[in-house]
Amino acid sequence: MQDFKLKPMKCELNYLSKSDGSAILSQGDTVVLASVNGPMDIKTVNQSIEKATLEVLFCSKEGKPSVADRYKENIIRHTCETAILGCLYPRTGITLTIQELENYGGLLTCAVNCACLALINSGVGMRHAVAALSCCVDGAGELVLEPTHAQATAARARLHFVFDSREKSLVTGFTEGTFSEGTYEEALARCRAASDLVFAFYRDIVSNYCHVI
Amino acid sequence: MTEVYKHIHPSKYFNDYINQDVRPDGRDFDQQRDVIININGITSADASAIVKCGNTTVVCGIKLELARPKAEEPDIGFLISNVELLPLCSSKFRPGPPSDYAQVISNIVSDIVINSKCVDLKDLCVVTDKLAWVIYCDLVCLDYDGSIVDACIIALITSLKTLSLPTVTYDNETEEVKVDTGVKIPLQVHGLPVATSFGIYHKLPRNIILADPSAYEEEMCGGIGANLIVCWNKGLFCGIQKFGGCNLSTEDEKRTISLAKQRCKLVEQVIETCIKNGEVK
Amino acid sequence: MKVSVGDVVLPGDYCEEISPKDEKSRVVIGPGLRKEVDHVYITKAGILKKKNPHTYWIDSYQKRYVPIRGENVIGIVTQKAGDIFRVDIGGSTTAALSFLSFEGATKKNRPELQVGDIIYAKLVIASKDMEPELVCVDSFGHKGRLGVLNDGFMFKCPINLVRKILNPKCPLLDSLKNEWPFEMAAGMNGRIWIKANSMRESIALGNAILGAEFLSDSDIKKMCNNIAAILAGHVS
């Protein structure tokens, strides 16, 4: 197995006292705060008799809602919906609020990881954990795992993947720029292998507190 | 009787079809719906196209405008696309401001167009820092029956391919702009991005990949919208988006890529033929 | 990932140890575990615990209550509606408490309960598809320890803390009960009600309980001694 280097990750669970689950995560210089509330009562119109309704709110640093934020919310909502065992909580709602604090590249992957940690902290039943990773293709066509902000802006293409913790299959993927089929497959394989590090980090964070609860 | 069954046991009804290796509309799992294109249907627009993929119908109209380029990027023009999902096209959409879903689709479509670099925005600049073309692409869905992104991209690219820009003369001293609609230069479109949508249906022992899903199939695969959109443009990918639905294994992913490539060739042919026929007239 | 008893687990891990040894033996899987086609999967992050012979569960961190049948909870009466009281127990919906499920209650002799009262009750119906239902009597019609909690002070805490202090092995209550007299009711929904002789003692008790959340057993003993010493005026 190759030696992968991810950006240094730091995390604090249960950062907020009033929400049911929360996490603050920094990956490199990018910092995101996520809070989960639920399962709780929601409006009858939004209730689903089959599963919990997940509502995701992404607050950017500028505070102005934009079309790009809706897109991010959509990605996070779809990702978390597959991770949560919503069928355990029918007719209820789970709210996930994500606040961007610092953005030095890799905001969306950091937000997905942070959301997953907040969900783990909240004790909501989950099918699996998720890990998001990003990869970029630089000018020479070389793959760079977890690029820095400068590398990512100069890159020809940026690829982001989210994997589940069970079989490491692809939960969510989204790309920017153009790339060849070979590049795509290599990026996917490399991110998949590196996802182990993210899951090991999650386990580390959980083991910090769970022996004394 | 089947209608009642469909409403009482929606997932079981669908599952019964899948177990027989056929989809409710009679297609095979890999089979796409037919694509019909009509160009320049709207005479008041600078370029337009109407696309039907099965029942899904999208109209694209392009309007040209002149504007001053942004100060930070003085040598490029603008390409602005917007997708509208009105209550007309499906009961899923309510009147009012654009829904979250419409915003997401708009974002995906404009991302694909920008990422594929099919239009060089520098071509749109007339005079650096003074004058540039703005291409407004309005996409309106008339009938929503799944795989909306595919139809939008076809409509948008076909319209762009038929678009020609009038010549503009700009007087540096008087700042006077003269537009000569008599002499038109066709817009350079590099490549031809084609998007292909897939639904991923959860089934044991292995998931089923449904190419070009209808609205009903999309719903069965975990909510509104396709699960996987692969966009292929002349040998390169310009966007692979996967949201929700079931998790995708490596073999399934390879299959979808080869299917997307096949479809790309077909759609290319349709678009080329359509434009050629249009020119003859 | 494959895990075994005593490990730190994450959602999506599976445990092969959890399986019936022979046809007759039964395995009980508790919170945080879920059987799917091939394996028993973990759904919550925490520690996988086992009680002989075949009972398994996950000790996890949780603040939000999801009603479970048979648990004793502390609720607040929010509404009187017809024959029932609506009680907020911290779950996604309010629970129903019938006028008749009190000791000695009849159609004529209604219990005197006001909106805003705190009650200690048992959940008799709790399922994901139905409204939870509470009672304040046991199956013999006695109230036992259930009923209205008068005076005192109620505060919220994480659910795992309630589980921790109710664990017979936890030294917290053992250490505190010898120091000063108090009454206490712990609801499995993460609410604790306490009553002591003075405000000072109530605050000390509340702080001792909340402070125990992330402490080990020996640290809890130390903390209790410390608080007792401060309360007795030995340390200022």
Automatic annotation (TrEMBL), chain A:
Q: Cite the Exoribonuclease phosphorolytic domain residue spans from the record.
A: 6-124
An individual GO BP term: poly(A)-dependent snoRNA 3'-end processing
Q: Does the keyword Nucleus apply?
A: yes
Q: Indicate where this protein resides in the cell.
A: Nucleus
Q: Name one GO molecular function term.
A: RNA binding
Which branch of life, at top level?
A: Eukaryota
Asked whether the UniProt record includes Magnesium among its keywords, one would answer no
The terms describing its cellular component in GO are:
cytoplasmic exosome (RNase complex); nuclear exosome (RNase complex); nucleolus
Keywords in UniProt for this one? Answer: Exosome, Nucleus, rRNA processing
Q: Which InterPro entries match?
A: ExoRNase_PH_dom1, ExoRNase_PH_dom2_sf, PNPase/RNase_PH_dom_sf, Ribosomal_Su5_D2-typ_SF, RNase_PH
Instruction: Report the Gene3D superfamilies cross-referenced here.
Output: GHMP Kinase, N-terminal domain
Give the family this protein belongs to, as stated in its UniProt record: Belongs to the RNase PH family.
Q: What is this protein called?
A: Exosome complex component RRP46
Q: Which organism is it from?
A: Bicyclus anynana
Q: What is the lineage of its organism?
A: Eukaryota, Metazoa, Ecdysozoa, Arthropoda, Hexapoda
TrEMBL record, chain B:
Q: Which GO terms describe its cellular component?
A: cytoplasmic exosome (RNase complex); nuclear exosome (RNase complex); nucleolus
Q: Which Gene3D superfamilies match?
A: GHMP Kinase, N-terminal domain
Name of the featured protein? Ribosomal RNA-processing protein 43
Compartmental location: Cytoplasm; Nucleus, Nucleolus
Q: Which gene encodes it?
A: LOC112052204
Domain Exoribonuclease phosphorolytic, by residue range, is 31-166
Q: Which UniProt keywords apply?
A: Cytoplasm, Exosome, Nucleus, RNA-binding, rRNA processing
- Gene Ontology molecular function: any one: mRNA 3'-UTR AU-rich region binding
Which species is listed as the source?
Answer: Bicyclus anynana (Squinting bush brown butterfly)
> Example GO biological process term?
U4 snRNA 3'-end processing
Q: Which residues form a coiled coil?
A: none
Entry similarity comment: Belongs to the RNase PH family.
SUPFAM superfamilies to which the protein is assigned, alphabetical: Ribonuclease PH domain 2-like, Ribosomal protein S5 domain 2-like
Task: Write down the superkingdom of origin.
Answer: Eukaryota
Automatic annotation (TrEMBL), chain C:
Q: Enumerate the UniProt keywords alphabetically.
A: Cytoplasm, Exosome, Nucleus, RNA-binding, rRNA processing
Question: Which positions fall inside the K Homology domain?
Answer: 152-198
Any Gene Ontology biological process? regulation of gene expression
Alphabetically, the GO molecular function entries are:
RNA binding
Domain Exosome complex exonuclease Rrp40 N-terminal residue range list? 27-64
Task: Tell me one Pfam family matched here.
Answer: KH_6
**Main location group:** cytoplasm
Would you identify the family this protein belongs to, as annotated?
A: Belongs to the RRP40 family.
This one is known as Ribosomal RNA-processing protein 40
Which organism encodes this protein? Answer: Bicyclus anynana (Squinting bush brown butterfly)
